[in-house]
């Protein structure tokens, strides 16, 4: 739709028709088209119109609502497959939990973006390849590579969702940054949905218990399971139909948490030295340390994806730059600990996976930090930072493919 918008800049009536046919899709496409010709008067008018903070909550089109309802029910049914067909839950859920939601979200965006048959075939083929492969792997209870494959399969399916969201492979970084922003918005709105669900669950079970009816087991097995499976789908629908729902909240969260995380991280590194705990000899501590690294990186990327769409003050850019620099220190500690453990006890699937992931993260952080300090010191925009992040995302996809599909073969399911 982006090309259609740019091609009809001399035809206001056609733009209005495109907008009324698919308002959420038009808004997403306009966000990509506007930066290419920001001085165009007609685009300026549409920018003012689309960024006006409407107080109304849109319900989207009827077709979209029906699609979301059907997808939510399908997600719940997939989650209940072990109960329906008496499948082994310990076998089913670790391997197939990603297929409860990700393929349905991919189908949603494929439908919204009107993906071509070739791109749709790629999405279906990639999802089916993951489904068949992970379920054909032998059920080895003590296999580290099986666990790694199951975990990285989630990232693989997330990457396929990103491909679908962006409408395919694009040279422009904007679709990938929008995808990162969508993930941040989805976390916010899904968390709110789940909090409301918890409150409703407590009230419902409490009310029925007052009249002597115990519905707890039934409610948890069906209502809660279907609700958990549907929450990301409903959250996606709400964020796409009503960008203003979290459009104001997400930037505020990014601005608040970035300096707080920076202070926490510095204090944590100092406290780690005095505590005597280190990731070199403590495996569990190393795992927590890497989880911290990934979480901080996610905050940086989310903040940059938000900043690329709005103005950012110079102090805020400096906070991101310093946070990124401190994260490099965290990554360096984790990487040295992994190398120490490999040199001392040898290579294992877990150590190989963590080593590869940390090396990729370190390279990405160095590129991002360089751009952030350049933007902070030279008062530049964060466009270069966003471009670095967006162009590096396929590298992570390649790594997830290697760990998901090749590690079980390389290490013989050890």
From TrEMBL:
Claim: Transmembrane is one of the keywords in the record: yes
TM spans (from-to): 65-87, 93-111, 118-134, 146-166, 186-213, 219-240, 252-274, 286-305, 317-340, 352-373, 393-411
Source organism superkingdom: Bacteria
Keywords: Membrane, Transmembrane, Transmembrane helix
Protein's recorded name: DUF4153 domain-containing protein
Lineage, broadest ranks: Bacteria, Pseudomonadati, Bacteroidota, Cytophagia, Cytophagales
